[in-house]
Specification:
Elements: H1 3-10, H2 14-23, E1 30-31, E2 38-39, H3 45-56, H4 61-69, H5 75-111, E3 121-125, E4 129-139, H6 145-162, E5 171-177, E6 187-195, E7 209-213, E8 217-224, H7 230-243, E9 247-248, E10 252-257, E11 268-276
Antiparallel strand pairs: 1-2, 3-8, 4-6, 4-7, 5-6, 5-10, 8-11, 9-11, 10-11
């Protein structure tokens, strides 16, 4: 069939068919030596389909000639090409996810009233932010706290992922009693919090709550060294609040500031106590 007919059937323009001929990836079945008309056969439509598939895999047109001329141009070579494309896309996805986490962390720090790495205690006002939260209680005498906490975080993170949300940093825990506050209580009442940059809908039977963490005036202290001696730092903060005539107006916030260049390093924790009044 003539090139214009093949163009209509294949959905490839005459110009592109001539370009394919020049690249040696789809040559006419024959060329009339008198009028130079290019003729194609219906079976060559399969080559058009192959070219389109390779284009979808990201193979440059200029490389296809070597591919088609290879003794075995199917399974192994296609797999190598596909694996390379998948690897490149995964790298791009990782880079995009890192950018999103950086934006989320910057947004949280803005709402958090900044992040002051001084050794002392500061008073600042935080802004309200949207979050996914999960609250539960832990009996000090019956469970290992690390196991309890890990399971709680797993439940929250899985619920967020299941409903199309993204995990962000920093995350935090609100302690209502049992740790830091009302330390004699045998029951630790805590709520874990994952900040959100947009609304999230969870199932009706889910224990996860989407709510706004309110703006607060807080006394803040920075603790370095992970969880080592963090109770001492918390007691210091609570004592300062009392000595300066404030009252505690809500749960203490334990905020995990993760090094964005080393996300496995949890070395800095900020403790915040919401304040009421100043006598």
């Amino acid at each position: 069939m003539r090139i214009d007919e093949f163009s209509k059937i294949s959905g490839v323009s005459v110009y592109t068919l001539r370009f394919y001929d020049k690249l040696n990836i789809l040559k006419p079945n024959s060329v009339n030596q008198n009028n130079k008309y290019r003729d194609y056969e219906p079976k060559q439509l399969s080559r058009v389909a192959e070219i389109n598939s390779l284009k979808e895999l990201g193979v440059p047109l200029k490389d296809m000639s070597d591919f088609f001329s290879a003794p075995s141009n199917d399974a192994k070579m296609i797999r190598v090409i596909a694996d390379r494309q998948i690897s490149e896309l995964q790298t791009k996805i990782k880079h995009t996810e890192d950018q999103i986490k950086h934006i989320q962390a910057s947004l949280f720090l803005y709402n958090n009233g900044g992040f002051d790495m001084v050794n002392g205690i500061t008073v600042k006002t935080t802004r309200a932010f949207l979050a996914a939260t999960l609250r539960d209680q832990y009996d000090k005498g019956t469970k290992k706290y690390d196991e309890f906490s890990t399971n709680l975080w797993d439940k929250l993170e899985n619920e967020i992922k299941k409903n199309g949300g993204l995990l962000s940093t920093p995350c935090l825990t609100l302690y209502y009693s049992g740790l830091y506050l009302n330390q004699d209580n045998e029951i630790v009442d805590q709520e874990i919090v994952e900040p959100l940059t947009h609304g999230l809908v969870v199932g009706e039977k889910s224990n996860v709550v989407i709510r706004e963490i309110p703006s607060e005036e807080v006394a803040s202290i920075i603790h370095t060294g992970g969880f080592n001696d963090i109770g001492v730092t918390g007691n210091k903060l609570i004592a300062w609040v009392k000595e300066n005539g404030y009252e505690v107006s809500g749960p203490i916030r334990e905020i995990y500031h993760i090094d964005q260049k080393n996300t496995g390093n949890l070395s800095t924790i900020e403790l915040q106590l919401p304040l009421k009044g100043n006598q």
